[in-house]
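Holo prediction. Input below; ligand is zinc ion.
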Amino acid sequence: MIMKSFLVLAATGNAFLDTLNKILGIVVGFLVAFVVIFWISLIIWTFRDIRSRTQDLLSQILATLLVAVFFIGGLFIYMILRPRQTLAEIYERQLEEESLLAEMTERQTCNNCHARVETDLQICPSCGQQLKRPCPKCERLLELRWSFCPYCATNLAPGPMQSMAGMPIMQPIPGQGAPMSGQLGQRY
Ligand SMILES: [Zn+2]
Ligand SMILES: [Zn+2]
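Structure of the complex:
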């Protein structure tokens, strides 16, 4: 009677171990499956990421292989070495720079005090630096470096030579030259 009950106990014990083994097997199976799926996703992620950052095929292959071989360690190395900007970011930045450049060339700045000035001003409103001069014939505003008026084809050759000599006061600016000399006269 005692022997029989012991055998039953042993049998139930064996059955318990069996189920424990089965559960462990299932858990390990899930873990392995998870790790494999994780590994594959990392490889896919790396491949997509490197493709958005470089068009160089060799770099793409190397980065993907790095993660495929070294798993998470490879991912760390990849994160350290990968190009900082994606191609889309670089493209966006180029567009921004180009538009900024276009804006800068569109908007003139005073070459004396670097204040922004409108294109149709004769002198800088901040420092009085001469920016343009009127054509003596058609009175349209011309760049100081121009030798000819592009509007009425007047030859301005003697004009710019004087301004090149660095004597802006000598420039014939009606309404400005007179008060200046008046002030000077009062001071003397
Ligand atoms: Zn200025
Ligand atoms: Zn003109």
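The helical segments are 2-53, 57-81, 87-106, 158-164, 177-187. That is the main takeaway for now.
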